[in-house]
Structure formats: structure tokens, C-alpha cells
Amino acid sequence: MKLSDIAKKLGCEMTGHDVEIARVAGIDEAGEGDLTFVSNRKYISRIKTTGASAIILGKDIPPVDIPSLRTDDPYFAFARALEIFFAPPVPEPGVHPTAVIGEDVILGAGVNIGAYAVIGRGCRIGDETTIYPHTVLYPDVVAGRNCAFHSQVTVREGCRIGDRVILQNGVVVGGDGFGFAPLKDGTFYKILQTGSVIIEDDVEIGANTAIDRAAIGDTIIRKGAKLDNLVQVGHGAEIGENSVLAAQAGLAGSTRLGRGVWVGGQAGFAGHLEAGDGAVIPAQSGTSHDIPAGAIVSGSPAFKNSDWLRSTVAFAKLPEIARRVRELEKELALLKSAISG
């Protein structure tokens, strides 16, 4: 495909001569016929050494020696360019003969159900949704249109899932929350988890993530939220619209995240906490208190990010600071001795 044709599809401005493009590749791996991109300014120096035939760049980047596509958002343009050259695998159409379909199930138009999938009694599956092999839906699950439930997904009884939701391999939606009442003899009594999980439209959930149901009420993942692999969402938690959680993040029960909250990998929340709209919690932060809207916190326990950055510098200097304090104490002792003498 000609670069000029790609420019039209992506709405980019082309500079340099027209070239034939066959693939999209990373800047270090790209060769002849490849289209690459730079969205982070720290990679600008690599433009001189890339073997790519063309590159997607921001409009603020100085002129380069190879043909380029200019745009205000090069990362978004790169994502759309991938769609031009890569077609996802098409699922087997229809219901596979080994799939088990329970009583009173309603399947919308164009639903695809793979081998050995199990669809429980009373489920409702929207149009054009695909259930991949070995996926299990317990009774009375409701799933919307154009969803994709990949292999080994489990959705427990009564959970409700919106339109265009993607559940990657091994996701568990609606498993029992961690609820046990301690008894006087040191044992625990299991609390029945009668709640449900609600996943709204345009949510994507990464592989092996678990979203628990609550004893009462609902665990809710709001519209447009994106969860990475191995995320734990505790019972009764709520994740706000367009929030993003990286791998191994964990939310204890009844945690509330507002809109557009960003949570880094391995960050954790104690239970019954709130993070306001637009809060940012970087990787490995541990929160033990509510976080205001727009705040950036770090550390464990997490506190104001700018203070945490200064603290990490001080931590490295602690041995030297301690040595100097000991020397000052000795000098002060000598001074006191001289004055008293």
C-alpha cells in the first residue's frame, strides 16, 4: 500500500516522497517496506538509524530524512495503522456441536459459540458476540452486543455485561468475595456472597484478572475502563469510567475509584477507600487513605508524589547523614565539655 493511501486513511499529512508500505514495525526492528512511529521524544535520536521506509511523527518534530506522516497524536495513528495491516482471526461461525446450551437461553443474531463452551440456563447473549472454546457462563448471565469472551473465561451466575466488552483468557467475573466472619473458637464462618458484578460498555479486562461479587450489592466496572492482566477487584468495589489499572494492581473490598483514575502495576488499595476523578497512583504504591481528585501519590503508604520523590533522594543519603550526625554529636559533646571546664 502506498504511503499516500495510508495518510488518507489515517488523516495524516504526508511529507517526503511516496513509498510502498507492507508492514508496521518498531523503530529498532523496522526495515525496508516498514512503517514505524515515534510518540515519545526520548526516541527521536533513533530516527537517524532506523531502517524503516517511513515514520509516523508528531507535528512538532523537526523535519527528518525519510518520508513521514505528521499528526497531533502519533500513538493513536500507529494504533490505527496496525488495523490496516493486521486482520484478527475470524472465529468459527455459529454454535459448535460440542457446546452445551442450557434451557431458556436466548442468543442474538450472529452469535458464535466455540467448542466445549457451556452456556447456563437463562443466559442472554447479544448480537454478534463471540464465546470462545472452553468458556463457561453460569445461569442467568446477561451479555451485550459485540462482546468477545476468550477461552477459559468464567462468568458466574447473574452477572451483567454491557456491549463491546472484551474478556481476555482466564478472566473470572463474579467469583465469591473474600468474606468470612471470625468466630470465638478461631475458625471462620463463610458469608454468603449474594451480590453480582456489573460491567458496563466498552470495558476490556486482561488475562487472569478476577472481579469478585459482594455479600450484598454490586461490584461495578464503569464504561470504558481498562484492566490489565492479573488485577484483583475486591467485593463491592467500583472502578470509574475510563480508569486504567496496570498488571497486578489490587483493590480490597468497597474501594471506589472515580473517573479517569490511573493505577500503576502492583499498586494496592486498602478497603473502603476512595480515589477521586483523575487521581494517579504510580506502580507499587500502597494506599491507606482517601486520595483527592487529581492528586498524584507514591510510596507505601502512599503520599504526595513530589514529597515522595524528594524522600527517595534523602533515603539514599541516610548513611552519610547518620555519619555526619554522629560526628556533630561528638563535636557538641567536646564543646560542652570545654564550656563546662
Description of the structure:
The protein has 341 residues and is α/β, with parallel strands linked by helices. The protein has two domains: 3-85, MurE/MurF, N-terminal domain (Udp-n-acetylmuramoylalanyl-d-glutamate--2,6- Diaminopimelate Ligase, Chain: A, domain 1, 3-Layer(aba) Sandwich), CATH 3.40.1390; 100-305, UDP N-Acetylglucosamine Acyltransferase, domain 1 (3 Solenoid), CATH 2.160.10.10. It has four helices and 37 strands. The chain has a ten-stranded parallel β-sheet, with no helix packed on it. It has a nine-stranded parallel β-sheet with strand order 7-10-13-16-21-24-27-30-33, with no helix packed on it. A nine-stranded parallel β-sheet has the order 8-11-14-17-22-25-28-31-34, with no helix packed on it. Strand 19 (180-182) and strand 20 (188-190) form a beta hairpin. The longest helix is centred in the last third of the chain and has 23 residues, at 318-340. It starts with a helix and ends with a helix. The mean pLDDT is 94.
How many helices does DSSP assign?
Answer: 4
Distance between the termini: 92 Å
Count the domains.
Answer: 2
Q: Tell me the Rg in angstroms.
A: 27 Å
Global geometry: flat
CATH architecture of the largest domain: 3 Solenoid
Q: Find the CATH superfamily of the largest domain.
A: Hexapeptide repeat proteins
CATH names the topology of the largest domain as UDP N-Acetylglucosamine Acyltransferase, domain 1
How helix-rich are the residues, as a percent range? 10-25%
Low-confidence stretches are none
Q: What is the CATH class of the largest domain?
A: Mainly Beta
| Biggest β-sheet description | 10 strands, parallel
Mean pLDDT: 94
